Amino acid sequence: MKVAFLTMGKDIGGAKQDVLTLSQKIAAHGHDVFVIAAPGVMDRELTGTPVQFIPAEFYVRRPWGLWKASRYLLRVVRENNIELVNPQGFFTAIIAWLMRFSLHRPHIPIVTTIHMFSSLNFYKYARLLNIFSDKIITESNCERVRLESGGAKRNRIEVINNSVDMQRFSQERTTPVLRTEYSIESSCVVFGIVARLSPEKRHSDYIEAAKIAHHRFPDTRFFIIGDGPLRDTLQAQAAGHDYIIFTGARRDIPNVLRSLDCFVLSSEVESLPLSIREAMSMSLPVIATDVGGNREIVAENITGYLVMPKIPDQLAEAMSNVIADRLKREAMGKAARKFCADRFNADNWAVYTEQKFEKSIKQH
């Protein structure tokens, strides 16, 4: 089987990390796997792996740019005899669909993976996926409901939970680099959020909650891992509070998570966040807002706490609960690891997706 993953943009977020993991898992099963994406990060990450990287500037949304991208994709598909394309999002699905407008159109299926649209208002266009895609894969039941509400056909959608490489994200294979870099004692309770510094992630709520929790429990630190357009604004909000630490973007996320006692995600909109799954794999309790598919993976008072979005006081209260009871936070971390192993095993994820691809090729 020859399959190609199509992605847009140069940064590495949860969706692209999923592509990195899944493409390598499927390639390890003996298939020819291609990742077609903008060069800069993905190509470096895939160096030395069996996955073949093909550079392409797919971050276009204007009609002419989409058409040009489709001509490039058509050439790549023909040259490499690709049997299936897997666009990672709405606009890459359009590019793949436009590829079919040719005198010698490629008779290959388009199986689109939708992680989450950039805006909830955009789901009203989900019905167009019935045109652009033969099948749709999504990562959570929440996302399936959103797509169906926008007109995507139920019989085209299949939920396959994205997973995490639990060998890479394990305490046994990692070291607490942040505690070493910032000289933090083992007695200090450390929180962290790993997310792009963008409005929907609501880092401002995390910072306000950190101020409240630190006032109650001074022996605490609060890391913000990532970069993005709100960095200057958020650093200004945290100015004068040296227990709130910005690390910038990091690629050693397993070691970063190993440094924490609790993972936090304060978003106002989500699907099924990879960052939560990675944290759970690292035996961390999770505090997350009750949005999107978070309720599907965070069990209240068992693997962590769910709080309402945009209410820093609730976030601070959950943080205080984690700080005050060491035994309970350790028990929640162990339960999180077990839940992750039972439901989000990366090998199973690769097998399910591989079977979906093979079935689509046979039926097309």
Task: Please describe what this structure looks like.
With 364 residues, the chain is α/β, with parallel strands linked by helices. The chain has 15 helices and 13 strands. It has helices at 14-27, 42-46, 63-80, 90-98, 129-132, 141-149, 177-181, 203-216, 231-237, 253-258, 274-281, 294-297, 312-324, 326-343, 346-363; strands spanning 2-6, 32-37, 52-55, 84-87, 111-114, 135-138, 157-159, 189-194, 220-225, 244-248, 262-265, 286-289, 304-307. It has a six-stranded parallel beta sheet, with helices on both faces. A four-stranded parallel beta sheet has the order 3-2-1-4, sandwiched between helices. A three-stranded parallel beta sheet has the order 5-6-7. Strand 11, helix 11 and strand 12 form a beta-alpha-beta unit. Helix 8 packs across helix 13. The longest helix has 18 residues, at 63-80. The chain is elongated and about 70 Å long. It starts with a strand and ends with a helix. The model has no long low-confidence stretch (mean pLDDT 94).
